[in-house]
Amino acid sequence: MSLDGAYDDGNIFAKIVRGEIPSVTVWEDDQVLAFMDVFPQSKGHVLVISKTSKARNLLDAEAKTLGRLIGAVQKTARAVRAALKPDGLVVTQFNGAPAGQTVFHLHFHIIPRWDGVPLGRHGEGMADTDALKALAAQIADRLER
Ligand code: 5GP
């Protein structure tokens, strides 16, 4: 899908927001959901999305949505750091299929990195749900109140 086009209510993240398919939540409020990537590129790979916006990508998004999202990304990244003690943290966001986007509901990736540990391939290898739940609980426990 190119940068142009209509938002598809049937995309997988829209289904997660509606509770139609399961996901492992780290935290949420009325606007934002942070949940574990089921094909993680590293231990503790978290996705942050808006629960209300129909933006497909960064270019579509309303300024208010972006403000809420980036604040949520920082809050989540701080908790990931506190919980998992990575040596670094990658925050990524893809716009359009040629740029690597596969789910067309705006989202940010938070990917912890450790020295000497190579990054897994994007969207490869499904994680064990119990392992994701344990990581989500560890991260949620370190959220700033
Ligand atoms: P994109 O390539 O669009 O930036 O990222 C989409 C991300 O969604 C990928 O990292 C992929 O692993 C993740 N993903 C795809 N399907 C699901 C799913 O059903 N549940 C969860 N939690 N993550 C998913």
Question: Overview of this structure, please?
Answer:
It contains 3 helices and 5 strands. 28% of the residues lie in helices and 18% in strands. It has one domain: HIT-like (HIT family, subunit A), CATH 3.30.428.10. The chain has a 5-stranded antiparallel beta sheet. The longest helix has 22 residues. By secondary structure, it is an alpha+beta fold. Strand 1 and strand 2 form a beta hairpin. It is globular.
Strand tally, please?
5
Helix content: 25-40%
CATH superfamily: HIT-like
Q: Could you tell me which ligands this complex binds, including any ions or cofactors? A: guanosine-5'-monophosphate
- Top-tier CATH class: Alpha Beta
* Chain oligomer state: single chain
Instruction: Determine the structural class based on helices, strands and strand pairing.
Output: alpha+beta
What is the CATH architecture assignment?
A: 2-Layer Sandwich
